[in-house]
């Protein structure tokens, strides 16, 4: 006789499949990345990210309302900084009236309950496209950390709920946490990009912000001296545990799909929420293949998002957030 367990019984129809499904996607899973630019009336499609846009602050207002009405309650802000405001030190990042600071206030003014997280990194402000200050042919670590702490204070002053350092300097979480405490921002959260790999999947994002590293004589054009080597697994756990010890409230693995083994390792190792960033290149691949008719856009999107959550992603930063929620809402 055949064994008494027949696993196909639980797959007979959609009713039983949905009854026993382990991983369910809801709007609460998402953090929505948003690109902001100077100007008026701008909704500019990013060429390598079809159907994804940079917004000027006036049009950002509508987008925020739309997200909120869809049940998307958290955003992650990025700014595209005009070239003439870029330098080696990120001076513009500390401008209390800078684009990021105004963007935070704009979101809070149209939707006070929207959770605002901000990207904390030098690269959009760097004339060289690097996440650190450059001195004598080096990306200098501790000076950069102190700058990131100042940037975090500036974002907190403008009303950010969480700062999200995406740079991978050593010790910056502690430096930021101490600075926030010293300035009285005891309730400002830190979502650390704790296991961020030196990935080639960030290309479209760097197009969106015009933030790619430039040719320099003494500094490599990649970010491999600070972002992690993609051959490494154990190091991701060490990086993440250190960030938690230094005061991170949420940790992150980035990119997503190629790193789901890391997501699971970290989920099993830590007791804080784990975020996963499904990055721009992952978005672009699905868009391009589905435009060609080679893949079913919605089906592949849902499969990848579900895989990220199944692997252990408690929070998913994704350019698909709106598409997913619209699909869920039917
Ligand atoms: C910058 C930053 C990057 C991303 C988020 N913050 C790019 C980089 O590190 O070069 C990538 C996001 C994406 O590709 O969607 N610190």
Question: How many beta-strand segments?
Answer: 12
Shape: globular
Identify the CATH architecture: Alpha-Beta Barrel
Mean pLDDT: 97
Strand order of the largest sheet: 1-4-5-8-9-10-11-12
Return the domain count: 1
Q: Mind describing the biggest β-sheet?
A: 8 strands, parallel, barrel
Head-to-tail CA distance between termini: 44 Å
Low-confidence stretches: none
**What is the CATH topology classification name?**
TIM Barrel
Q: By CATH's scheme, which homologous superfamily applies?
A: Aldolase class I
**Discrete helix count:** 11
Radius of gyration: 20 Å
Helix-and-strand structural type: alpha/beta
- Helix residue percentage: 25-40%
Strand percentage lies at: 15-25%
- Name the bound molecules: ligand PBG
CATH class wording? Alpha Beta
Helix-strand pattern: HEEEHEHEEEHEHEHHEHEHHEH
Write the layout of secondary structure elements.
Elements: H1 14-20, E1 30-37, E2 43-46, E3 49-56, H2 57-70, E4 74-79, H3 99-110, E5 115-120, E6 133-135, E7 138-140, H4 141-158, E8 162-165, H5 172-182, E9 189-196, H6 203-209, H7 234-246, E10 250-254, H8 260-269, E11 274-278, H9 280-291, H10 297-311, E12 315-318, H11 321-328
Parallel strand pairs: 1-3, 1-4, 1-12, 4-5, 5-8, 8-9, 9-10, 10-11, 11-12
Antiparallel strand pairs: 2-3, 6-7
This protein binds ligand PBG.
Ligand PBG binds next to helix 6.
